[in-house]
UniProtKB/TrEMBL annotation:
Protein name: Biotin transporter BioY
Family: Belongs to the prokaryotic molybdopterin-containing oxidoreductase family.
GO BP, sorted A to Z: anaerobic respiration
Gene3D superfamilies cross-referenced by the UniProt entry: 2.40.40.20, 3.40.50.740, Dimethylsulfoxide Reductase, domain 2, Dimethylsulfoxide Reductase, domain 3
Organism (species): Bradyrhizobium lablabi
Length: 766
């Protein structure tokens, strides 16, 4: 702790906002950053989290794992044994050495999802990857994300890199000033833009939409959920059947084409492959023109509405935006691609406030100017292992070692993993088909977890090392699109024997003979000053104020200059398509991709297409479940926190359903219901509302998995985790992204005695 009095307010930062905190002896007092016009209420989860019963106090080892002679499947109710730090690190170092000697570095999977802290140094994903690179010479890694698994792969084939399209393109300032129509496929829910990796000092989305709406801009919320757009946008809700956005986009494109409303000059100059797509659009090959009448039956939106909307789009500055949610489903590549094609047909790509922006509003990073100087970044070293998997294929990897899988034009074998080292993440939140994943995580010989609380992943591990929470350590908060560097000062002492990930890895590295390589001779304080220096130097070279580290730390924050709002690479391409070619094979926007055609994937054609789900609603499972991101926490983080808990009913997560669907099932507000399909079942508390379409139920992710005790293959999750229901399949062979957004279920009123919630109870230990 650096020069911090016990009763001071400590500046700090989280992925959902900058704030100050003060420990009052029992709970944490939290006040948002004074410059934030719309601070996130998620910050209030910190108030009761620091000393919660779910916190891990000491190193623990699964008792059954210690008895290697009797191979016992892992369960969530097995006993753990307390270990001292010296003893547990000796044990772990020995196990790591054994695995490396017997199986090599490619037998270790380094798991982390990167959201454990907004700090640039105590970033669990960077720390565990750096350690495995230094101590092992590498590890099997994962690529892409659950949020953007399909888009990160398809966008480079179509126009450019995911980061450039989503973060350095159309800004909220441009929307406030220039946009006339914002066509938001999947909406722009503020609960999503509350969150930004690395932190955020000002939430600007609500004000920008309100400003645009007052000017006369028309927002269209194309979603099964009415509140996927804030009230300030004064949006027109177009309730669309789940997963049918591509059909609507195609019908809009068909109307633009057949009524001579599309910008043919733009298509000719800036795009390639339109003639192939045109044949599909007009039905010349399949006999099905993608008309408004055709799409009306699929989407539930009338043909008249579709035609009227198509007529409106060319009349002003129109922005086509596609959310993360659409590509978190089977064939998720298609809406991302088709949204870009629709924008190209309108000819406005690259114009201020117009064209195309993927994921605008899906994170707090999007729609902002990039910083003009670099932010502190911890090097992870060099990974000497070439094997990798798409992040959402972890169960496939563990269940099918050596079996081939397709990814982005390559065929590769799944690695044979003996040890999983996980720090900073809870896959029992973000992975699909949890019952299948339970079987998968029984395949490795050893699972090691660094964790601050007894998450389901920690309860399923063999060696559990207690890690500090962000407010129990010093760090630097920064994001590449936020104009503030935050001194994240420690506000409270660590609980129990919790230690920083860095200190754990430093001691482990010493046992493995690689301490100098890992620490480079620096302690945590010296690392913070070291990581700050490139930012300070860049500020000084540009003539900006550049205080030394000690002065920055005393101030608590530092303003960072923003780069120009120049529209990024798409504006440059529009200005000079020859001098500023895109990174695609043709240098243009690829409406038809010869590269993808060469892959021969039947689940990802060489141009955007309507591909209906292979799991539609049926008489057995007539409801479509939307398992979207929660409004009360980040993923599953701090589900035991005060704000998350205050939004549950009877301690259970809330599921929303339409009044007609509730009436047919005899369900009223506050009733506990059971959602089920062939993969599993969970309990949730019902909220009846017409903010969801008929035939749709919505249950956010993030409730900690809490299986009812017993030996069944599909135990009931009593707490409301929808991933007991979702499908564990790839979006397509191209991207192998996550399909966790959508599944089909049935729902009924739960009449039995309510089982207790044990999600936050520590396991038995001796």
């Amino acid at each position: 702790m650096m020069d911090q009095a016990a009763d001071d307010w400590a500046p700090h930062s989280a992925h959902w906002g900058a704030f100050s905190a003060r420990w009052n002896g029992e709970t944490l007092d939290v006040t948002p950053y004074e410059g934030d016009p719309a601070p996130s209420p998620i910050l209030q989860n910190f108030t009761t989290a620091m000393r919660h019963k779910a916190r891990i106090l000491r190193p623990m080892v699964r008792k059954a794992w210690l008895d290697r002679s009797a191979r016992t499947e892992r369960t969530f109710d097995q006993e753990f044994v307390e270990y001292s730090w010296d003893k547990v690190l000796d044990l772990l170092a020995s196990e790591l050495s054994r695995v490396k000697t017997e199986h090599g570095a490619a037998a270790v999977f380094g798991g982390s999802y990167g959201w454990s802290s907004a700090g640039r140094f105590h970033h669990a994903q960077s720390q565990v990857h750096r350690f495995l690179n230094m101590a092992f010479g590498g590890y099997v890694r994962s690529v892409n994300s659950y949020s953007a698994g399909a888009s990160a792969v398809i966008l480079p084939h179509v126009m450019g890199g995911y980061e450039a399209v989503s973060r350095h393109n159309v800004t909220w300032d441009q929307i406030a000033e220039h946009s006339d129509i914002v066509l938001a496929f999947g909406g722009m829910a503020l609960k999503n833009s509350h969150v930004a990796s690395g932190g955020i000092s000002r939430h600007i989305e609500r004000d920008a939409m309100a400003t645009a709406a007052r000017r006369g801009a028309a927002f269209y919320c194309i979603s099964p959920l009415r509140d996927d757009m804030p009230e300030e946008a004064n949006a027109r809700w177009l309730p669309i059947k789940v997963g049918t956005d591509v059909a609507l986009m195609l019908a809009l494109a068909h109307t633009l084409l057949t009524e001579d409303l599309c910008d043919k000059a733009f298509i000719e100059r800036y795009c390639t492959g339109f003639e192939n797509f045109e044949r599909y659009l007009l039905g010349r090959d399949d006999g099905t023109p993608k008309t408004a009448a055709w799409a009306a039956d699929i989407t539930g939106i009338s043909s008249g509405m579709i035609v009227d909307l198509a007529h409106r789009l060319p009349r002003g500055r129109t922005l086509v935006a596609v959310s993360h949610s659409l590509q978190r489903a089977q064939y998720g590549e298609q809406p991302v691609w088709m949204g870009a094609v629709l924008a190209a047909m309108l000819g406005q790509i690259g114009l201020p406030g117009g064209g195309y922006n993927y994921a605008l509003g899906a994170l707090g990073h999007t729609g902002r100017r990039l910083n003009a100087v670099p932010i502190p970044t911890l090097s992870q070293g060099k990974n000497g292992v070439s094997e990798f998997i798409p992040v959402a294929r972890v169960s496939d990897m563990l269940l099918n070692p050596g079996e081939p899988f397709d990814y982005n034009g390559r065929s590769m074998p799944y690695p044979d993993i003996k040890l999983v080292y996980w720090a900073g993440g809870n896959p029992f939140h973000h992975h699909q088909d949890i019952n299948r994943m339970r079987r998968a995580f029984n395949a490795p010989q050893t699972i090691v977890v660094h964790e601050s609380a007894w998450t389901p992943m920690a309860k399923f591990a063999d060696i559990v090392l207690p890690a500090t929470m962000t407010l129990e350590r010093d760090d630097i908060g920064a994001a590449g699109t936020d104009p503030r560097l935050i001194a994240m000062r420690k506000a409270v002492d660590p609980i129990g024997e919790a230690r920083d990930d860095f200190d754990i890895f430093a001691d482990l590295s010493r046992r493995l003979g690689v301490e100098q390589a890992f620490t480079e001779g620096r302690n945590s304080r010296q690392w913070l000053a070291h990581l700050y220096e490139p930012t300070r130097r860049a500020l000084a070279e540009a003539g900006w104020e550049a205080p030394d580290f000690d002065e920055f730390w005393q101030r608590g924050e530092l303003a960072l200059p923003s780069g120009p709002d120049d529209g990024g690479f798409l504006r440059a391409f529009r200005t000079d398509p020859v001098g500023n070619k895109l990174s695609t094979p043709s240098g243009k926007i690829e409406i038809y991709s010869k590269t993808i055609a060469g892959f021969g994937y039947d689940d990802c054609p060489p141009h955007p297409a309507w591909l209906p789900s292979t799991e539609p609603p049926t008489s057995r499972h007539p409801l479509t479940l939307i398992a979207n991101q929660p409004a009360t926490r980040l993923h599953s983080q701090l589900d035991f926190g005060a704000y998350s808990q205050s939004n549950k009913v009877a301690g259970r997560e809330v599921v929303r359903l339409h009044p007609d669907d509730a009436r047919r099932r005899g369900v009223a507000n506050g009733d506990i219901v059971r959602l089920f399909n062939d993969r599993g079942a969970c309990l949730a508390a019902a909220t009846v509302t017409d903010d969801v379409m008929r035939g749709v139920v919505q249950l956010s992710t993030g409730a900690w998995y809490d299986p009812e005790p017993g030996t069944t293959e599909q135990p009931l999750c009593v707490h409301g985790n929808p991933n007991v229901l979702t499908r564990d399949i790839g979006t397509s062979r191209l991207a192998q992204g996550c399909c966790g957004q959508v599944t089909v279920v049935e729902c009924d009123k739960y009449e039995g005695a309510l089982p207790p919630i044990r999600a936050f109870d520590p396991p038995d230990h001796g």
